[in-house]
Specification:
The structure is a single chain. By secondary structure, the chain is of the alpha/beta class. The chain is 47% helix and 15% strand. It has helices spanning 23-34, 47-59, 76-88, 112-140, 152-155, 162-182, 200-205, 208-216, 227-237, 239-242; strands at 14-17, 38-43, 63-68, 93-96, 143-148, 187-194, 249-252. Helix 1 packs parallel to helix 2 (47-59), helix 1 packs across helix 9 (227-237) and helix 3 packs parallel to helix 4. The longest helix has 29 residues, at 112-140. It starts with 13 loop residues before the first strand and ends in a 7-residue tail after the last strand.
């Protein structure tokens, strides 16, 4: 029988959250901090946001550090893992959340530069940080990787989001591959696929008309919030609640997609 008092207790666990300065990453980082984890909050450009997240965790009595780095730099994923290990002694939980669409373009209008940026951040960086964290978790004999994918991985995305959707489809499949490879070593690998979540991501990449069109296609009748995504990450990271779950993608989309 599960003792509910033992669930969602992350005291002493070290958590690395990429893209933790705003949106879903920020909400997830703060929630892990509130649950007792030591949190490394990564940011690329949003230093103020990441510092705010870390300060919120510290003010609540938790431990947090901020780590800077552009994930398009191929050296950064390894550096982030190494810095987290140096600060906290290991990486128990990886929240692989950094990603961006870099604007909307039809595939036939996408340049090689567009391709390189979208694929570099959403595929290579996501792969590279899982690769870097894998030996750390394998040596520890335990761990949880949670990759942020997207509803676009299944639908192809809305207008102009094709490269992003294709990249996130890679992340979903990569999640299953890592899950198979890491399971014998006590490491679970899962994903969370948010739908249309009203964060800075969509403020930058979607028009009000596009967001309203998406809202009309959601059975719950509204867009989601970053806080409404947090529970899926906490659940998947918790060995009490999800210790026999690996290689799965949890869809968080208000019923917009029901696979």
């Amino acid at each position: 029988m599960i003792n509910p008092s033992q669930a969602l207790q992350f005291a002493g666990k070290s958590v690395l959250v990429t893209g933790g300065g705003s949106g879903i990453g920020a909400a997830v980082a703060q929630s892990f901090g509130a649950a007792g984890a030591r949190v490394a909050v990564h940011y690329s450009r949003n230093q103020e946001g990441a510092q705010g997240v870390a300060n919120t965790i510290r003010q609540a009595g938790g431990q947090a550090i901020t780590l800077a780095g552009d994930m398009l730099d191929r050296n950064v994923p390894d550096q982030l893992v190494a810095q987290t290990v140096q600060a906290f002694g290991g990486v128990d939980i990886l929240i692989n959340n950094a990603g961006d669409m870099f604007g909307r373009r039809a595939l036939e209008q996408a340049s090689d530069q567009d391709f390189d940026r979208v694929i570099g951040l959403n595929i290579h960086a996501a792969f590279a940080i899982c690769r870097a964290a894998a030996p750390v978790m394998r040596r520890a004999g335990q761990g949880s990787m949670i990759n942020t994918t997207s509803i676009a991985a299944r639908t192809g995305g809305s207008d102009g989001a094709g490269l992003y959707g294709a990249a996130k489809a890679f992340v979903s499949t990569m999640t299953r591959v890592f899950a198979r490879e890491m399971a014998p070593h006590g490491v679970r690998v899962n994903g969370v696929a948010p739908g249309v979540i009203l964060t800075d991501f969509h403020v930058r990449n979607s028009t009000p008309e596009q967001l309203e069109g998406a809202r009309r296609g959601i059975p719950m009748g509204r867009l989601g919030t970053a806080d409404e995504c947090v529970g899926a990450y906490l659940f998947l990271a918790d060995d009490v609640l999800s210790g026999y779950i690996t290689g799965q993608i949890i869809e968080v989309n208000g019923g917009q997609l029901m696979p």
